[in-house]
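Subject: Protein record for review, amino acid sequence with backbone structure tokens
Concerning: The relation between a protein's sequence and the shape of its backbone.
How to read it: Take the token row as a discrete description of the fold.
Enclosed: The protein record, placed directly beneath this head.
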Amino acid sequence: MQWIKKGLIFKPDKNFDWMVSHAQVPFVEKTEDNVLRIYFGTRNLQNQTSTAFIDVDAGYLQNILHIQDQPVQSIGKLGCFDDSGAMPSWIVNFNNIKYLYYTGWNIGLTVPYRNSIGVSISENQGVSFTRLFDGPILDRTPAEPYLCGSPCVLIENNIWRMWYLSGTEWKLHADNPEPYYHIKYAESTDGIHWKREGRVCIDFKAFDEGGIARPSVLKDGRMYRMWYSYRRGSDYRINRSHSYRIGYAESLDGLEWLRKDDEVGITVSETGWDSEMTAYPFVIDINDKRYMFYNGNGFGKSGFGYAILDDNHKVMK
């Protein structure tokens, strides 16, 4: 496959006191025939992440029609799992309710942060979301003692299926703790209570790989396709060659996956907003075209853009 880059869509620049920088982990929904709504995580001056959205022209995505002037979800209560950030990851539409699955952030002491997964709902077409619980629906367990986050959720045959980031350890590099994580799988009958059996879907392929994040799963006929981002274990914040790249995998059941990163068809640019990293992809089909929305440099500090799958390299369904 081959993706044709179309450029940057949006980069926050102190738009509001809660939207000072970053537009991380974009998720896209079609709200009208000619409008796309793009949700993302954005930061205030205290580096705390809230959930925001913009509406864009589906025919020309750089044409921003609306920037929501209030966060659709702010940080959680003091002491809760998301009191330092609530970063959106995925939305499921079920029984006329939108379920927002998001990553909650806590600032750490011995390590920089701790992540867990929460869920909120919207009954006003995604203009605002209300937490179902002050606590997370997925957190650390005896078998998964470090962190979890960036969920992707699909419903199939009345089963809610989740692919999510799961921490494997923290390692010290030059006296700085760095997180290691891969992608695991969970199931639910209601989208709230999840059964985890430790199944790893996307694992490290090299000894120096350190992080595999933000799965985006698309059911394509009988084939499951997953896009994600992966990085090295150290120096990935400052070393371009160690930073996030977008990867790709295939599966016949959503459980056993084959990594095919060399077939992903997209990488960093020579210059510009995505010249250092490509990260946190979200793939969606819109009007017979396959789109990828993704972050570039600085883990979303440079904003998000998009690419379209080349018609000459269409994925066969």
About this structure: The longest strand covers residues 159-173.
